[in-house]
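hey all, quick one before standup. I had two proteins in the batch that finished overnight and I want to keep them in one place so we stop losing track of which output belongs to which input. First protein below, input sequence then structure tokens straight from the run.
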Amino acid sequence: MSITPTFNDLYKKQQKKLVPSSFKKGIISQVNPSAHTANIYFVDNSQNIIKNIPMAKSIDITTVKVGLRCRVDLFDESNPQDMVVAYLY
């Protein structure tokens, strides 16, 4: 008699294989519509501005204004090209 794994067992096994990503809350300080990027400072550290973070293609760049809050997904915290502005709020 073989024991088939449950969905939860399979889910837990797959989650261990994935690289955990993180995110931070940010505020837009400047927008570059032609490059579809923005300069952002994080809420927890307002002294450093991260420049040229790519915006998600689903964000309408014409609606982006300085001062809007956003979520930034971080895949590599030391490289702004490995970050993306996921959404605005």
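OK second protein, same deal, sequence then tokens:
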Amino acid sequence: MKSLGVGVWFLPGVIINYAVSGWHSPYKRALRQMKSKEYRDIIKLCTEEINMTSSTHMSEALLLRATFYLLRGEMNCAMEDFEQLLAMDGVDKHVSVFKL
């Protein structure tokens, strides 16, 4: 794999733009950090995702951020996220199960 610039990689016959495919979304970075057991920036990354106008992971980011707020004992912040999540239409059914 060869880099063609920021966020663009080349495989023989294939060009992958990770920024477009979602690999560089703040939510995806938060998931990678969780996998690596690096929890310090999870809330910040979820907030970045939530504030993006073109976010495709808003409900998941809200759920993850609310969960981390709960773990930190920040109940008011967690409740705000859960309430926003409950008010959303068209939320993925897997996220909907957790928001009940």
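Flagging for whoever picks this up: The first helix runs from residue 18 to 21. The helical segments are 18-21, 26-35, 42-51, 58-71, 75-87, 93-99.
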